[in-house]
Amino acid sequence: MTILIYVLFGIGLAASVLGSVALVRFPDVYTRLHGATKCTTFGSIFTTAAVIVYGFARGGAAHQTLAIHSIIALVALLLTNPTGSHAIARAAHRSGVKPVGAVVDRLEEES
Amino acid sequence: MLVFLATSIVAFAAYLLLTLPSGTVGLWSVEELVAGAVLAALTGLIARNVGFPAERKERRAMLRMFNPLRWVLFLVYLFGPFLFAMARANLDVAYRVITGKIRPGIVKLMPELSTDLGRTLMANSITLTPGTLSVDIDEDTHALYVHWINVSNTEPSSREVCGSFEAWARRITE
Fold it and tell me: What is the pLDDT of residues B96-123, one digit of tens each?
């Protein structure tokens, strides 16, 4: 069980690190959003999953509460994260930020 | 009335989940059950028009989601095709982060979904997957504008951009 928790933490950590590196390496707000919001969400899913596994594995009322609250946190994360990154992208496009090096921009052509 | 009850039931379920191991009536204490019922009724009164839109078609689409079979389908989708697509897209973006090979662009999709709920599910799935990000939606034509990190085709079908997400959104919500 301990090994499973470490593996989940490892995957989560790797995804979060990649997301952070993407923030430095990508050229504009849209591509950075890909790294900074999605990869870190993937990371958070796995670190939260590790907490859930730990909570149920330890047992007892306090740890079960911890696990259940983590599940609710995970649901909230899965609902709010796409909404937030969509709002940032939409606001950026509306205030005139052009995607750098874009091969096509249908939204600009049609609005 | 139906909408008030539906909202209250969801709020009560959420409250019960948050206070799970607390007492002796089932798994909960009497105080928590009473407080939960009162708060759920209040929430239903205040928020009934938030979760359930006024338009008849959208309202029926939300009420359809109370069918447990649709929840099973949703969970199958979440842990099957969605998680798999997300893991694969993460590896793909990881490769692009390291090598810097990107061909970004905003492409247009025309999802053939009849309700806002289905379109929301599809757009959220697209945004949660690394490499694709829904930027805007046209309220009249329901065209979805997606920022795609590796544009291989400037007139893509939804299958090229997001795999089976559209088919699953239709299966779950319609």
Answer: 888 878 888 888 888 888 888 888 888 8
| Predicted confidence (pLDDT) per residue in A30-47, tens digit | 888 888 888 788 888 899
Q: Are B44 and B1 in contact, with CB atoms under 8 Å apart?
A: no
From CA A63, how far away is CA A69, in angstroms rounded?
10
The residue behind tokens 């504008």 is B145
- Interchain contact B117–A (C-beta under 8 A): no
What are the structure tokens assigned to B33, written together?
């059950």
Query: Are the C-beta atoms of residues B167 and B122 closer than 8 Å to each other?
Result: no
Q: Note the ipTM here.
A: 0.81
A22/chain B closest Cα distance in angstroms: 5
How many angstroms separate the CA atoms of B166 and B159, rounded? 8
CA–CA distance, B106 with B143 (Å, rounded to integer): 12
Inform me whether the C-beta atom of residue B123 falls under 8 Å from chain A C-beta atoms: yes
DSSP E strands, B14-158 = 105-109, 132-137, 144-148
Closest residue by Cα to residue A18 from A45, A41, A49:
A41
Could you write out the DSSP letters of every residue in B105-128? EEEEE-----SHHHHHHHHHHHHH
Full-model pTM: 0.82
Domain ranges of chain B: 2-52, 68-173
Check if B17 contacts A (Cβ < 8 Å).
yes
Q: Of A77, A94, A103, which to mutate for an interface test with B (greatest number of B Cβ within 10 Å)?
A: A103
| Residue from A37, A2, A39 nearest A17 by CA | A39
Please, what sign has the CA dihedral across residues B36, B58, B148, B75?
Answer: positive
Q: Please indicate if any CB of chain A lies within 8 Å of the CB of B50.
A: no
